[in-house]
Structures are given as C-alpha cells and as structure tokens.
Amino acid sequence: MGNVYGYVRVSTKNQNEDRQLISMREMNVPEDHIFVDKQSGKDFERPQYKKLLRRVKEDDLIYIKSIDRLGRNYSEILDQWKMITKEKKVSLYVLDMPILDTRREKNLLGTFISDLVLALLSYVAENERNLIRQRQAEGIAAAKARGVHFGRRPDPLPENFYEVWKLWKMKKISVSEAAKRCGMARTTFFEKARAYRED
C-alpha cells in the first residue's frame, strides 16, 4: 500500500468544508495529504485537485467524501474515475458509498462491479440535478404567470408623476424637464412613462 490522500471540495468560498475534513481525519489521512478546493465542480480547473493528481503515485489511495466531489456530470466523473484508477493506478474510496472502494477485489469481476456501480450512481446524480433545474424553471415560470416579480422591487413613482406624465404626454414639457420635476434621470423617466402607458 502506498500513501493515503484526501480530496475535499466545496462549491463556494462561503460553504464549510468541516464535515469533509472530519471524515478525512477519521480515516487517519495526514493533514499535509488533504487537498482542499473551494470552487464549483463545473470544470477541472481546480488548483488543489491538479496538485493532488501530480503528487499521487501507483498504489496510493485517495479518499473522497462523495462521488460528486470529482465533478458535476456523468461523463466528467467517469473520465476522472478512469484516469485515476486505470491510468494512474491509484485506488479511490468514496466514504459515503463504501461499495465504491477500488482496493477490494482487484480482479476483473471486482473492477467490473465497481465501474458498473459508479456509472449507475453518476447517471442518477446527473439526472437528479437535471430534474432539480427543470423543477426550478417550471416553478419560476408558474410564479411569473401568477404575477410574481423576481429581483429588486422597483422604487415607487413620485407623487407628482401622473401630473408630470400628462404634461409631457401633451407635449407641454420636454422629457428632460419632466425627469427633473420627478427627480429622475431622463432614461428612468422615459422607461417609467412607457411602462405607465402600457399599464
């Protein structure tokens, strides 16, 4: 058996990696063998992950907390899994899914079972993410149809807006004068006037 390493990833700088770090310590991974990235898994431009891959040698072992720490879609996870286990001949152990432990049964059947389970789990994980995105899009569309507005609420119109708008509409004052009377920028007044007319 070679050296033992741990890889930890959180999607943003605000997320906490403590849960993953505790798991690594429970597996007796030395502190200087734990590599932590704080960024999205949407690609593999992750400095600590790259550093880990440069450091590991054949027969080393990498612990990860869950399979999605390797990436965020089916093909990327499979590519990384194959590159680590087949090309680099480094073992992988997924702590949340002990069946994904490539140290066990390094024969053809053991490898086949591990790869099959990985492919299935990666597919399920990606499918679930796609369903979540679809549900979010449907929820937003339904909310918009009910008249729910997203983003910052627009500032209320000044009390004199209707009178100023009427004067501007009757061409008695210019857009610049109307905006000045309402305490707005010219473009803001014009946008509000257009929206007001449409309402």
UniProtKB/TrEMBL annotation:
CDD domains listed in its UniProt record: SR_ResInv
Classification via Gene3D superfamilies: Resolvase, N-terminal catalytic domain
Protein name: Site-specific DNA recombinase
Keyword DNA-binding among UniProt keywords: yes
Protein origin, superkingdom: Bacteria
Active-site residues from the entry: 11 (o-(5'-phospho-dna)-serine intermediate)
Keyword field: DNA integration, DNA recombination, DNA-binding
GO BP terms: DNA integration
A GO molecular-function descriptor: DNA strand exchange activity
